[in-house]
Amino acid sequence: MAMQEDIRRGRSVVYALNVNLVFVTKYRRGVITDRVREHLRNTCRDVCAKMGAELRELDGEDDHIHLLVGYPPKLSISRLVNSLKLVSARLLRKRDFPEVRRKLWGNHFWTPSYYAGSCGGASLQTVKRYIQDQRRPQPAYRRR
């Protein structure tokens, strides 16, 4: 059972819905620097809040990010993903990020695809640690 603070309540529903999302940069270019990652974290937190969701964690490597999002049952994951990708790409283009402009061109930042995985089997702490460990070096036998 989910811990008490992870259970949310609506007028006619009690829920604990969490999704692990992965977004990959166009052409898998390594454009996500620390500065870009922090901008993405702030942007995605704002988008989630406006949609009634909660960004619980965001991290990743230079060519992709993982997000852990708690969301209400009335919000479809595809709508959440479309808003997150659209707004984050648009705001990155508006701001001055030369590291992005050097490696990507046009209006595309993300690939059109994404990964969405339910977070019901593992505890949120386990998923959070997994996301936080994305940039930590892994032993050679664990790399692919």
Question: What's the topology here?
Answer:
Elements: E1 8-9, E2 14-15, E3 18-24, H1 34-50, E4 54-61, E5 64-70, H2 77-94, H3 98-103, E6 115-118, H4 124-132
Helix pairs in contact: 1-2
What would you say this structure looks like, in words?
The chain has 144 residues and is α+β, with helices and mostly antiparallel strands. It has a single domain (4-142), classed as 2-Layer Sandwich (Alpha-Beta Plaits). 35% of the residues lie in helices and 21% in strands. The protein has helices spanning 34-50, 77-94, 98-103, 124-132, and strands spanning 8-9, 14-15, 18-24, 54-61, 64-70, 115-118. It has a 4-stranded antiparallel sheet, sandwiched between helices. Strands 1-2 form a two-stranded antiparallel ribbon. Strand 4 and strand 5 form a beta hairpin. Helix 1 crosses helix 2 (77-94). The longest helix is centred in the middle third of the chain and has 18 residues, at 77-94. The mean pLDDT is 89.
The CATH architecture designation is: 2-Layer Sandwich
Helices and strands, in order, run as EEEHEEHHEH
Tell me, what is the CATH class? Alpha Beta
Quaternary state of this entry equals: single chain
Instruction: Give the domain tally.
Output: 1
CA-based gyration radius:
16 Å
Low-confidence parts: none
Structural class: alpha+beta
Indicate the proportion of strand residues. Answer: 15-25%
Helicity level: 25-40%
What's the rounded overall pLDDT mean? 89
Question: What is the CATH topology descriptor?
Answer: Alpha-Beta Plaits
How do the strands of the widest beta sheet line up side by side? Answer: 4-5-3-6
Number of strands: 6
Give me the number of helical elements.
Answer: 4
Separation of the first and last Cα atoms: 33 Å
Shape: globular
- Largest sheet properties: 4 strands, antiparallel
CATH superfamily: Transposase IS200-like
